[in-house]
UniProtKB/TrEMBL annotation, chain A:
It comes from Trichoglossum hirsutum. This is 5-demethoxyubiquinone hydroxylase, mitochondrial. Fe cation 2 binds at E103, E155, E201, H204. Signal peptide: none annotated. It holds the Pfam family COQ7. Its main location: mitochondrion. Catalyzes the hydroxylation of 2-polyprenyl-3-methyl-6-methoxy-1,4-benzoquinol (DMQH2) during ubiquinone biosynthesis. Has also a structural role in the COQ enzyme complex, stabilizing other COQ polypeptides. The gene is COQ7. Belongs to the COQ7 family. InterPro entries: Ferritin-like_SF, Ubq_synth_Coq7.
TrEMBL record, chain B:
It is found in: Mitochondrion. It comes from the Eukaryota. GO terms for molecular function: lipid binding. It comes from Trichoglossum hirsutum. InterPro entries: COQ9_C, Ubiq_biosynth_COQ9. This is Ubiquinone biosynthesis protein. Residues 158-198, 220-246 form the COQ9 C-terminal domain. PANTHER family: UBIQUINONE BIOSYNTHESIS PROTEIN COQ9, MITOCHONDRIAL. The keyword Transit peptide applies. Belongs to the COQ9 family.
Length: 240, 277
């Protein structure tokens, strides 16, 4: 899939949001607002909203779990790739550092959300640790282009995955509005977080393509294998 | 407590495989949306609370339930509300004692004016809460062996184990543990085992070992398929499971540490030799 196609796909929910009547969506750059909401669960508790439906709670539970597992994997992929890559290509040092720092930020965001909302981590946590480290190390051993193709494949899947979550969250909030319940800050904040992180993942995808991801040997087969692995891992960690 | 109910689990299992409904846990705790409805409605609460006061004298029995219903101003017939009989009474004790832990923690924090308890680490709080929960059994400790036997009945064991898991989860959460890596599981599993074995010692109980209790959910399924005489295969299966628990329990943390350590040092040695790895 081309980057432009993915971009278009990524922006579709945004258009929907703008067109959706009756919902005042917060500005996308509401990191400040969200961090204050995060810090004050008590303030929010003053006006309790209707209980979340069972299926919504189940969705939020598995969504947070799979996101944490994914970001854990992302940090480990970059951690394994970086020393190998920058020895051969020192100019990549700042890019790798930048992407790793963002992944580490995503990971700690989801760690905090899991702890706050009492969501269990994936039972296969050590498996994801091993698999991600291996993926990072092996693609970096294959060279710069293959390492970038790995990022390209992973971020394509993750971008689609986060888009799917944003769509489901929108659906959930729309139903809440329809039932006259009002949407909690908690859910809005989660939606903003997922959108912001999705945009950063798509930046990584751009960086990978700019750095010759498409020139990797066996690019097609390499990326489809990695994307298949990502799909499977997402499917499993939503459940286990 | 009629002892026959404890001694014939095998027969009960073959005639009616009735599982207590397992609640699917409590996913995604919200701070803005209202949480779960209280676990017991007003009638249940009134009857079970009164019945629990009868337990020291009359045990975890249907008699206590009847007395409790009468004391709470209901007809004897109200007891029909509790199809699981004495297990409903045990369950009420387990759930309410678990939910009382938060208050106990808050009270301890308020009592200690210097604020030193609040500043204590997770470990101290886990110890405090576990002890607090154990001590909540004191008024009925001479009846606890009955309760354990009821919990170990085939139809109730899955609910009992789920409740033990919820207790363990509650203690780690109240203690302020924010760990969400693989230690999430080991912490909860080990606390469950520690808790159930300590409780057993406290009751001087000869009931099934906690590991056996933890395993019997699986064991039941196996047993329903078992064609061998005297369930010999089931017994062997149990032995193997217990052995697995022992091996995994003692080995896993060391194995991971070992692998991490050797992998790192191996890679570092190779890198120091100029291998591009
Ligand atoms: Fe990420
Ligand atoms: Fe990423």
């Amino acid at each position: 899939m081309s980057v432009t196609m993915l971009r278009r796909r990524a922006s579709r929910p945004l258009v929907q949001e703008l067109l959706a009547p009756g919902i005042s969506w917060p500005q996308r750059s509401c990191r400040r607002a969200s961090s204050t909401a995060d810090a004050q669960p008590d303030a929010a508790a003053r006006s309790p909203k209707a209980p979340l439906r069972r299926e919504d709670r189940d969705f939020l539970d598995s969504a947070l779990r799979v996101n944490q597992a994914g970001e854990l994997a992302a940090t480990l992929i970059y951690k394994a790739q970086t020393p190998l890559l920058i020895r051969a290509h020192p100019h990549l040092s700042s890019l790798m550092r930048h992407m790793y720092d963002q992944e580490a930020g995503h990971f700690s965001t989801f760690n905090a959300l899991l702890a706050k909302h009492r969501v269990r981590p994936s039972a296969l946590y050590p498996v994801w640790q091993l698999a991600a480290t291996f993926l990072g190390w092996s693609t970096a051993m294959m060279g710069r282009e293959a390492a970038m193709a790995c990022t390209e494949a992973v971020e394509t899947e993750i971008g689609e995955h986060y888009n799917g979550q944003v769509r489901q969250l929108l659906e959930m909030t729309r139903e809440m509005e329809a039932r006259g319940e009002g949407v909690s800050e908690e859910i809005r904040h989660l939606m903003d977080t997922v959108r912001r992180i999705r945009d950063e993942e798509l930046e990584h995808l751009d960086h990978a393509v700019e750095n010759d991801a498409k020139k990797a040997n066996g690019h097609e087969i390499l990326t489809s294998v990695i994307r298949g692995g990502c799909k499977t891992a997402i499917w499993i960690s939503e459940r286990v | 407590m009629p002892i026959t109910r404890v001694c014939t689990p095998r027969l009960r299992l073959l005639t009616s495989v009735r599982y207590c409904p397992i609640s699917r846990g409590r996913p995604y705790h919200s701070y803005e949306h209202e949480s779960d409805p209280p676990p017991f409605n007003a009638t249940e609460e009134a009857v079970l609370a009164a019945a629990l006061r009868q337990v020291p004298e009359h045990g975890f029995t249907d008699a206590s339930l009847s007395l409790g219903a009468r004391e709470a101003g209901y007809l004897d017939i109200t007891v029909n509300l509790f199809p699981r009989g004495s297990f409903d009474l045990v369950n009420y004790h387990l759930v309410t004692r678990r939910l009382a832990l938060k208050k106990a923690l808050d009270a301890q924090a308020a009592k200690d004016d210097g604020g030193s308890f609040k500043g204590q680490g997770v470990g101290t709080k886990v110890k405090f809460l576990t002890l607090e929960r154990l001590m909540a059994n004191r008024p009925i400790i001479h009846r606890w062996q009955e309760a354990l036997a009821i919990m170990a009945q085939p139809s109730c064991i899955s609910t009992s184990i789920a409740e033990l898991a919820r207790l363990s989860d509650e203690i780690w959460i109240l203690a302020g543990d924010a760990g969400v890596d693989s230690s999430w599981y080991t912490k909860r599993a080990s606390l469950s085992v520690i808790y159930s074995s300590t409780g057993e010692n406290l009751a001087h109980c000869t009931a099934p070992k906690p590991e056996a209790m933890l395993m019997s959910g699986l064991l039941e399924l196996f047993m329903t398929q078992d064609q061998s005489t005297d369930f010999a295969d089931t017994q062997k299966f149990l032995d193997r499971r217990l052995e697995d628990v022992r091996i995994v329990g003692s080995g896993i943390s060391n194995l991971k540490g070992y692998l991490d350590f050797t992998a790192h040092s191996f890679i570092n040695v190779l890198r120091s030799k100029g291998v591009r790895i």
